Amino acid sequence: MILFILYVILSSSGIILFKLGSTAVEFTLTDKIVGFNMSYTSLLGLLCYLISFVLWMVIIGKNDVSYIVPIGLAATNVTIMLGATFFLGEAFSLYKIIGLCLILGGIVFLNMGNA
């Protein structure tokens, strides 16, 4: 359970940090030279995302894929939605609240069926 929570936090943080640092990402192509520049925020997001990927491999290796993948994706989506509202200032509408409730309801149903 601790690995799962850590996965959700790192994966969601990675996405939020990617978004925060996305304005500084640059690609350049000049005469036979390709350039790529990233902010430290984006690099930190990449590190979080890579660590979360390794955790995800461990998690799906120890659980039924048909159970853990929907719950993992749902928990990550909910965390990203909340993080985008609080850290990125994105609007939180009635439709997002309804969607959030449906996602959380799906997690509850999956847990009831797996008990």
UniProtKB/TrEMBL annotation:
Which of UniProt's keywords are assigned here?
Membrane, Transmembrane, Transmembrane helix
Name where it mostly resides. membrane
From the Swiss-Prot or TrEMBL record, state where the protein is found.
Answer: Endomembrane system
| Transferase keyword on record | no
Instruction: List all membrane-crossing ranges.
Output: 38-60, 67-88, 94-112
Membrane topology listed for this record: Multi-pass membrane protein
Question: Which ranges of the sequence are coiled-coil?
Answer: none
Q: Which residues form the signal peptide?
A: none
Give the top-rank taxon of the lineage listed in the UniProt record for this protein: Bacteria
Q: What is this protein called?
A: EamA domain-containing protein
According to its UniProt entry, this protein's organism is Vagococcus carniphilus
Its lineage reads:
Bacteria, Bacillati, Bacillota, Bacilli, Lactobacillales
